Request: fold
Amino acid sequence: MKRITIAGLVLASLNTAAHAQSSVTMFGSLDAGLTYVTNVGGKSSIAMADGINKNNSVGFSGTEDLGGGKRAFFKLENGYSLDTGMAGQGGLLFGKQAYVGLGDQTIGDLTLGRHYDFAITMLRFLPCWSCGIYSVANGDIDRVSGQRLNNTVQFMTRSFGGLSAGMQYSFAANTGATTTNAGRALSATVQYASGGFSAGAYYTNINGAPVYAGGTGAPDMFGRPVAPYAGLIVDNLRTFGAGAAYALNAWRVSALYTNTRLKLGQNTSQNQVLHVGGDYRPAPDLILATKITYDKLDASRWLTFSGGVDYLLSKSTDIYLDLDEQRAFGTGTVASIMIAGVSSSNNQFLTRVGIKHLF
Reply:
């Protein structure tokens, strides 16, 4: 990915020439396209949609060499809508990530700020991730697409023989519109990579967690009806998962399983998701991907088939086609492909053409 590096910009203005190893990098992504959905609330829909194949973002990262294998570093990243120019993540200035830390090349990195919890580490095992966020499970209850925790302390080890691990602790956050966790939160991960094989697992436990219940297509949760597009704050969310991938020449296959338990008062709800699939590169600039997803939330079930074609115009720019079809099972259950909108029946199909640019 091409990045624009601004070396010495701040150093010159502050006359800190002694720290010549410092640098600041600007980075970001832009994604826009057209999405057609057969059934959203009983009607077909075609509309502009952005941030689908990859969330739109712009940010800055910096590092300073402290000597002896140690460094100081930071990241500030904001999301936004390419269609409207509006800031994302509830209008926060740096809503995607905002942290500062110290690192040691023999041990690992310690950071403080706003982080993704470690569920996001499973994206590397999600088949057909080039298909974008539509290929994530309904409502993203397992948090795999990337959700954040405020007031977080994180430590991530360096790789020891291909094995690395991480731990997070988040102090209770606010209870306003940008709540990530009203109570404490914990998250951990273990990752391994060797040659063409990689595997990993995560665990996240949050008190006072926001859940997009109305985006699942389930008729009820916790013994009460669920209104379309409605969200709620559960008393506790516990989720864990494991995934693995193997790459050989032009082929890559992967699988991911997640298990999430939600508690609200005396009631509980459980969500299990299994993704299986892979991708094939018949040419260096062409990626063909497909997967099947089985999603079970209490008595509701969904089967989703996803496919994608990604053509790389350059290292920074690509055009793509996404296809997703979902069928729902269970009394009162309707189809609801992630963020596409809730269907009025048990079937939903969408197709999307888009362009993505990274800098």
Q: What stands out?
A: DSSP finds one helix and 20 strands in the chain.
